[in-house]
């Protein structure tokens, strides 16, 4: 192995950027070749490369909640599938939350990368499948009481061997999901992305040699650790506590507390979520891996300069969860919504804990929810369609500016599906209105960004709708005297009669019904001067 002290720093930097470009290319491959508009248009996907031990070495500019989790996925995978079982040309698929994961719709494709018989890296493509089976179309079952109601559970499964798909294993997967054609296309797109990542890694090794490449990975881990320690050293020492709340337990009960206790000492920090409430009956639980993702994102968001995201970043961080709590619920609990709702509450709890110490670096509360609405139904030809859409809302204001309108905040980073694509791909829907929700941002010295309003008209029979969102009860908070933003609201209109929907609900629709989505505004920052 090359001595890291002898490495040319310019070579290390070239390799760092080449790895990032490879991860970016993987994401581009999925977006250009997937069948589902959720991937092609909205980009609900992420790509990473890890070293042979499963430690993150590069990621695309994708979805933060995915990227933090993917630091743990391959390490968990290797604890079940030993290296001796892997072969060149393999692509393994899995979605078990307890195996370095988050929720069932986020399916991971893992390809081991070999150079002259030596395992050097893994390429991992994560894609949100618009349906993974389960009790309801779209796989978001508001009444789920256990994990098996939420869809097909895929343990590590070798779907490709010797670069050829295993038709029997593929058939098992596709027989248990809706929208077989789309799901197969998405799976093949992930496989293509993993192969592309592998080719780019081998191109780098061909140029610089395996020893230099592997030594550079070690150097990059050390560099990121040093950068993270520098960031932590710049933050004040102390004990900080914060809490935020889910609107309810997924069934309309009382708010659910997410609590964090941060102990910051020198260049290390401990994040303890043990005080969070117990696991809930509804699908808002999550995994300890998502807690790691929330911490990783929150700390990086405070940085004044870019930190290369890799396994070294985690070395100065200790993350503690309590088994049986809502943030570490265990493998039997439903958790499909916890991935993008409870995770955001963890981020807000961290920022609220630190708001007294570093408020100048923070935004007021924003639309920290996916704002998720899913429409699903069969076509006249029997093909099943599922339209999965997250809706942006207002960003919280900052010390120096107003919040931006209609953006994704913190851990979410997907795009809106264009109206033209919605109506072309999903003839059961017509988008009749899309406007800013004027005045929804909270007042303050700087005002929170506004949310949006989008109206969907139902154009076909047998269509269902699913909601899975927060900020319906507890609004985005203001900071330093700023006012809260407006709450989220989804309204079902039938024959002129309006009904405000629950934040977690499955409902049948009729031709002519209208679903109106109104997303929250961000909180204001500072007291408004009269």
Write the topology of this structure.
Layout (H helix, E strand, L loop, with lengths): L8 H25 L3 H4 L4 E7 L4 E4 L4 H17 L10 E4 L11 E10 L2 E11 L28 E5 L2 E2 L1 H8 L5 H29 L1 H25 L3 E9 L9 E10 L2 E5 L15 H14 L15 E4 L21 H17 L13 E7 L5 E6 L29 H7 L3 E9 L13 E8 L5 E5 L20 E6 L2 E4 L3 E5 L5 E5 L12
Parallel strand pairs: 10-11
Antiparallel strand pairs: 1-2, 1-5, 3-4, 3-6, 4-5, 6-7, 8-9, 9-10, 12-13, 12-16, 14-15, 15-20, 16-19, 17-18, 17-20
Shape type: globular
Unreliably modeled segments: none
Order of helices and strands: HHEEHEEEEEHHHEEEHEHEEHEEEEEEE
Number of strands: 20
The figure for the number of domains is 2
Helical percentage: 25-40%
Strand content: 15-25%
If you had to describe this structure to a student in words, what would you say it looks like?
By secondary structure, the chain is of the alpha+beta class. It folds into 2 domains: 4-225, no CATH class; 363-530, no CATH class. The chain has 9 helices and 20 strands. The chain has helices at residues 9-33, 37-40, 64-80, 167-174, 180-208, 210-234, 288-301, 342-358, 419-425, and strands at 45-51, 56-59, 91-94, 106-115, 118-128, 157-161, 164-165, 238-246, 256-265, 268-272, 317-320, 372-378, 384-389, 429-437, 451-458, 464-468, 489-494, 497-500, 504-508, 514-518. The strands form 4 sheets. Strands 2-1-5-4-3-6-7 form a 7-stranded antiparallel β-sheet. The protein starts with 8 loop residues before the first helix and ends in a 12-residue tail after the last strand. The relative contact order is 0.12.
């Amino acid at each position: 192995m090359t001595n890291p002290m002898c490495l040319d720093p310019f070579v290390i930097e070239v390799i760092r950027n080449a790895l990032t470009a490879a991860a970016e290319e993987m994401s581009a491959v999925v977006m250009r070749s997937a069948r589902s508009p959720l991937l092609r248009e909205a980009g609900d996907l992420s790509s990473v490369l890890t070293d042979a031990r499963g430690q993150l070495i590069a990621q695309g500019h994708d979805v933060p909640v995915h990227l933090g989790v993917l630091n743990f996925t391959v390490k968990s995978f290797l604890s079940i599938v030993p290296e001796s079982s892997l072969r060149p040309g393999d692509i393994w698929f899995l979605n078990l939350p307890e195996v370095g994961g988050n929720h069932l719709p986020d399916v991971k494709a893992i390809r081991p990368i070999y150079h002259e018989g030596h395992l050097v890296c893994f390429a991992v493509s994560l894609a949100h499948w618009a349906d993974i089976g389960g009790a309801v179309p779209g796989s978001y079952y508001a009444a789920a009481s256990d994990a098996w109601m939420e869809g097909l559970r895929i343990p590590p499964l070798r779907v490709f061997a010797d670069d050829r798909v295993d038709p029997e294993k593929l058939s098992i997967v596709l027989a248990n999901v809706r929208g077989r054609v789309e799901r197969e296309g998405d799976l093949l797109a992930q496989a293509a992305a993993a192969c592309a990542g592998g080719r780019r890694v081998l191109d780098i090794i061909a140029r610089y040699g395996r020893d230099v490449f592997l030594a550079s990975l070690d150097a990059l881990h050390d560099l990121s650790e040093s950068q993270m320690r520098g960031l932590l050293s710049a933050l004040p020492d102390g004990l900080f506590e914060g809490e935020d709340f889910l609107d309810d337990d997924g069934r309309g009960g009382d708010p659910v507390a997410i609590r964090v206790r941060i102990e910051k000492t020198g260049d290390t920090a401990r994040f303890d979520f043990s005080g969070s409430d117990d696991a809930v009956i509804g699908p808002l639980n999550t995994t300890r891996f998502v807690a790691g993702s929330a911490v990783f994102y929150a700390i990086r968001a405070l940085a004044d300069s870019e930190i290369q995201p890799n396994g070294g970043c985690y070395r100065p961080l200790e993350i503690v969860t309590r088994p049986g709590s809502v943030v570490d619920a265990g493998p039997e609990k439903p958790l499909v919504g916890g991935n993008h709702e409870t995770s955001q509450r963890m981020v807000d709890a961290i920022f609220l804990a630190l708001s007294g110490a570093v408020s100048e670096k923070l935004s007021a509360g924003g639309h920290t929810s996916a704002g998720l609405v899913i429409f699903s139904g069969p076509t006249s030809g029997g093909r099943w369609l599922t339209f999965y859409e997250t809706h942006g809302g207002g960003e919280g204001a900052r010390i120096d500016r107003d919040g931006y309108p209609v953006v994704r905040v913190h851990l979410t980073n997907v795009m809106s599906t264009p109206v033209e694509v919605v109506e072309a791909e999903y003839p059961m829907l017509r988008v009749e209105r899309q406007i800013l929700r004027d005045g929804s941002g909270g007042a303050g010295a700087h005002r929170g960004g506004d949310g949006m309003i989008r109206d969907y008209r139902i154009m076909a029979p047998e269509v269902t709708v699913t909601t899975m969102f927060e900020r319906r009860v507890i609004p985005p908070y203001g900071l330093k005297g700023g006012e809260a933003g407006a709450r989220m609201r989804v309204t079902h209109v039938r024959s002129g009669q309006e009904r405000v929907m629950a934040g977690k609900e499955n409902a049948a629709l009729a031709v002519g019904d209208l679903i109106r989505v109104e997303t929250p505004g961000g909180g204001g920052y500072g007291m408004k001067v009269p």
